[in-house]
Structures are given as structure tokens and as C-alpha cells.
Design a protein that fits this description.
alpha+beta; Lipocalin; eight-stranded mixed beta sheet; eight-stranded antiparallel barrel; 16 helices
Length: about 550
């Protein structure tokens, strides 16, 4: 009977009452917020850091991980991404995610018939899915946290800060909404069809939101005899931005784009954040003056190659631009501008720390680089009290590395997300063959393939056609969206990657494609601003 009562009582107790702790011992601990501990212990319980220090006692119930020769860092933080979001299927007309049904739905929530590209009310939290393959890919590179937003259109909606693990969406979200995101997109034949038109549309929506806010205040103060203001979800989503309760993030790389964002921020007294920011160093003084932050993209521009070694498609201006981008983070730090790192849609997240190391080689301190990968994004998004450093009471988002986080030969051995342990998978072995000669597996990549792209809810069918010369490749990607020429095609054995631009809802969307060819089988992943989707197919005889 007593045993039965005990068992019944156990069911009523929270799971945390019997939760086992984890102790990482003998580790070098880079707290980021304070001094580095050369030989310390981190204790994790109930998803939180229970204790950290050199003299910490290991709990009797702890699972012990001996991390001698390893370094514990705060989990890496990708400050702009689309992780966890489903790719919106293409629909005819009406902009991304458009079509008649979508237009009718948008109209039901807005008294103004704004184009669907102008949708600040969209919330990433409403489209999140527990990420599996995407999340695993990111965790293998040491990431535990990300800011997720759909980056299609002009007003891209409201982002969410998420942890890259969880059984459901509610368990993933750290903060939502985090910010409203804006891009300088144009819609071709639709309004706005130019950069000037896009800026005008953004300004007009901010003025409309300001007017709605004033009318709401007037009505609240004295509603008698006054018609109540119409509800407008699009404009109401902008009111926290006008009140400086929420930052607005402009996706801008070029100097002129950043200046336009600064001008708008000054005009409306906005909390400005620049995402991308490859030329932000040119206006660092202006950014500093309004305390704007930069989410600097580590997706550095790559060399454009041509099939002929005698041809050089790059202008002198482009050559200079590529040379200056790795120096930008160091210049921002020197100017006192707040900044953090983001992946910028890179296909291989292993390039994140490699390019952070390149920033260090070009003038940024190593400590500042690690901070930009961990604590700085947490500070910029107002969650540094919860994550971003190795401190007691914070979320147990940790990355354990054999070696240095910025070293080329580092090995990520353990990743903790919300205290849950993940052991990253080793990268696949380099395929056999000599890619430099165009023989072996590299030569076998050439040909035509029928492929299926697994877009959730609406798979796309199409083809890929490759021509190979040495380590370079040209060709086309063709789907229902049209034909897109391959750019920057590269080969390593039977592994390939290329860039392309597809027309999508009146806008041009840059994508990155990577994959492998094994015999007559092709498979890989397509990365776009909306997220990553897998593809597979077979060679055409």
C-alpha cells in the first residue's frame, strides 16, 4: 500500500523533482561576461546553469562529462536566420505567398489594401516548426540559439528568438516578437517597383501607423461622439516600433541603403538595427550617433569565377568590396558600434566560425569575435539576462569545443540546448577523386538530372543541367518558377555547390545549392531566405 501511495505521489510531483543534473568538469570556461576559468566545472539542472566556477562541487546525482582539454563557450547565436520556418510555396501573382486566397485573408485583417509584401504583422512564431534536420545542421556547427524571420518581401514581419531544440514551438521560443524586419525589396511591375518606391512605401506605412496611434489615443481619452478607429493589424504591429518598445531591423549592405535606414530612424525616432552591414563601417559615426546596432553578415562575398581562366567577370569595384568586407567588424569595434554576427544565409554553417576568424585576421580582437557570436546578440535583442554567457541562473545553452572556437582544426564535441545534450555528428569524409583534374567523381557530375524539391505542402519538380570544366561548373536550374543560370559553380570530388537567382512573386530571390552525385543519384539542399529544403533526383539517361 505504501509503495502504491508513493508511486501515486510521484506522479503528482513535477518532473524536475527527479531530474538528473549534468556536470562538465576540468574544462576551460570562457564565460564571456567575466574572466575565463582555466579549470572549472559547470553544473546543469532543469535546463539552467546551476553553478559555474573553479571550486564547484559535483552533485551526487550528476552525469559527469570530463572535459579536460576542452573549452566551454556560451552556445553560438545566429542573429538573423530563417531556421525553423517552412518555405512558403510559390503561388501565381500577388507577391510571395500570394494568390487570391492569400489576398482575401490579408484584406480581412487590414482596412488598407497593402501589397502582401508589406506585412509587418506576420509573426515567425506562427510559422515555426520543430526543426529536426535544419536544427541538427546548426547544432553540429555549435549553434544553440537563433533569431528566425521570414525574409521575403519588404516588411518581413516579426522575428522570434528561438532555441534550436524542443518538442514543440512553445518550448523553442525565448522571445517573441523580437523585432520587425524590413528589406529593400522591389516588386517588379507591381508597386513599389524601385528602391525609391520601396522607401516611400515604408515611410508611408510608418506615417499611417503614427496617425492610427494618435486616433486610438484620442478615442480612448474621449470616445463619445467619435467614430472608433478601424482595426488594422498591419499598422498596429508598427506601433511598438514607433514607441521604441521594439527595434526595427533593416536588411542593408550598401552604404546608401544604410544611410536611408538611418534617415528613417531619425525621422521617426526608431531603435535601428542594421542586418547585413557589409559597408556599415563607412557610416560607423552615424550609426554610433543614434546608438544603432549591426547584425554583421559573415557570409562574405565569394570570388565570381568564369569558365575561361582568361576571363574575369569582376570589376575593380567588386574586387575592392570583397577585400574590405572582412575588415568591417574590426572597424565597427574601433568606432564603438554595437554589433553581433549572423550567418547571412550561408549554406555551410562551418564557415561561420571560419569567417569570424578571418575578421580577427583583419583587425578584430578574438575576444570581440567570440562575444559577437554569443553575448552581443543576446544584448542587442534584450535577453542577456537569460542567455549569451556562462553564468549561474541562465539558460544552459553551451558549446563544448576541443581546441579554440575560432581555430580551423577545432572539434565541437558537445552542445547543450536548454540543458539537453546533443553530440554533434562528424562531417562526412571528403569524397575520393582528384577534383583538380576534372577526372573521377568530379567528371561524373556533368549531365542532366530530374529532381524533386521537397517544399513543405507543395513539392517542386524540375531539372538540373551541369557542364564541368576542372573544378568549375556551369548550367541551369529549371523549375515551375522558370530557368535560373548557375553562378559560382564549384566542385570538390563528387560534391558540388552553386548560386542562382529565381523569380518569386515578382521579386528576385538568391539561393544557394549544395549536394552530391553518387552514380546516377543526386541529392542535397537548397538554401533561401525562407529556409533550407532538401532535393533529390536521378540522372537523365
Amino acid at each position: 500500500m505504501k509503495l502504491l501511495l508513493f508511486a501515486f505521489a510521484a506522479l503528482l510531483l513535477p518532473a524536475s523533482a527527479f531530474a538528473q543534473s549534468t556536470a562538465i568538469t576540468n574544462a576551460r570556461i570562457v564565460t564571456v561576461s567575466g574572466a575565463t576559468i582555466e579549470r572549472g566545472t559547470v553544473v546543469i539542472r532543469d535546463g539552467l546553469i546551476e553553478a559555474v566556477g573553479a571550486g564547484v562541487n559535483v552533485p551526487a546525482d550528476a552525469r559527469v562529462i570530463d572535459a579536460a582539454g576542452h573549452t566551454v563557450y556560451p552556445g553560438f547565436f545566429d542573429a538573423v536566420t530563417s531556421l525553423g520556418l517552412q518555405t512558403r510555396p510559390a503561388t501565381p501573382q500577388g507577391g510571395p505567398g500570394g494568390g487570391q486566397a492569400a489576398q482575401q485573408q490579408a484584406a480581412a485583417h487590414s482596412t488598407r489594401r497593402y501589397p502582401l509584401a508589406l506585412r509587418p504583422a506576420d509573426a515567425a512564431a506562427d510559422e515555426l516548426r520543430a526543426g529536426k534536420a535544419q536544427f541538427e545542421h546548426a547544432r553540429n556547427a555549435g549553434f544553440t540559439t537563433a533569431v528566425s524571420v521570414g525574409r521575403t518581401g519588404i516588411f518581413n514581419g516579426r522575428s522570434a528568438v528561438i532555441n534550436l531544440a524542443g518538442e514543440d514551438v512553445a518550448g523553442m521560443i525565448v522571445k517573441s516578437p523580437a523585432a520587425i524586419h524590413v528589406s529593400y525589396a522591389t516588386l517588379g511591375m507591381q508597386y513599389p517597383g524601385s528602391l525609391m518606391g520601396t522607401i516611400s512605401a515604408i515611410r508611408q506605412m510608418l506615417y499611417d501607423a503614427k496617425r492610427l496611434q494618435e486616433m486610438q489615443k484620442m478615442y480612448a481619452a474621449n470616445p463619445r461622439g467619435m467614430r472608433r478607429p478601424d482595426a488594422d493589424a498591419s499598422l498596429e504591429a508598427l506601433i511598438p516600433v514607433l514607441d521604441r518598445q521594439m527595434p526595427i531591423i533593416f536588411n542593408a549592405n550598401r552604404e546608401i541603403e544604410i544611410i536611408r535606414a538611418i534617415d528613417l530612424a531619425k525621422e521617426f525616432n526608431l531603435r535601428l538595427i542594421i542586418a547585413g552591414g557589409q559597408e556599415s563601417w563607412k557610416v560607423a559615426d552615424r550609426l554610433k550617433a543614434i546608438d544603432a546596432a549591426v547584425l554583421f553578415s559573415l557570409n562574405f562575398p565569394k570570388r565570381t569565377t568564369a569558365a575561361s581562366p582568361d576571363a574575369d567577370p569582376e570589376s575593380l569595384e567588386m574586387l575592392r568590396f570583397r577585400a574590405e568586407v572582412p575588415k568591417a567588424a574590426g572597424r565597427l569595434a574601433q568606432a564603438g558600434v554595437r554589433f553581433a554576427f549572423q550567418s547571412g544565409g550561408m549554406t555551410n554553417l562551418a564557415d561561420f566560425s571560419a569567417n569570424a576568424a578571418m575578421a580577427v585576421q583583419n583587425g578584430l580582437s578574438a575576444d570581440a569575435a567570440v562575444r559577437a557570436m554569443t553575448l552581443s546578440p543576446a544584448e542587442i535583442f534584450g535577453i542577456a539576462d537569460r542567455t549569451g554567457s556562462v553564468e549561474t541562473g541562465k539558460i544552459a545553452n553551451l558549446t563544448v569545443v576541443k581546441g579554440d572556437a575560432l581555430a580551423k582544426d577545432k572539434v565541437i564535441t558537445h552542445v547543450f540546448v536548454d540543458g539537453k545534450l546533443f553530440e554533434p555528428k562528424a562531417p562526412p569524409a571528403r569524397p575520393a577523386g582528384n577534383p583538380g583534374t576534372g577526372t573521377g567523381p568530379a567528371a561524373a557530375v556533368a549531365g542532366s538530372y530530374n529532381v524533386t524539391i521537397d517544399v513543405p505542402g507543395q513539392p517542386l519538380t524540375g531539372s538540373m543541367n551541369f557542364s564541368v570544366q576542372g573544378q568549375s561548373m556551369t548550367g541551369n536550374l529549371t523549375t515551375q518558377l522558370g530557368a535560373a543560370p548557375i553562378r559560382n559553380g564549384r566542385l570538390t570530388g563528387n560534391r558540388f555547390s552553386f548560386d542562382a537567382t529565381v523569380a518569386y512573386g515578382g521579386a528576385n530571390i538568391d539561393i544557394q545549392v549544395s549536394g552530391t552525385v553518387t552514380g546516377n543519384r543526386i541529392e542535397g539542399s537548397i538554401d533561401s531566405p525562407q529556409g533550407a529544403v532538401p532535393f533529390s533526383g536521378t540522372r537523365v539517361p
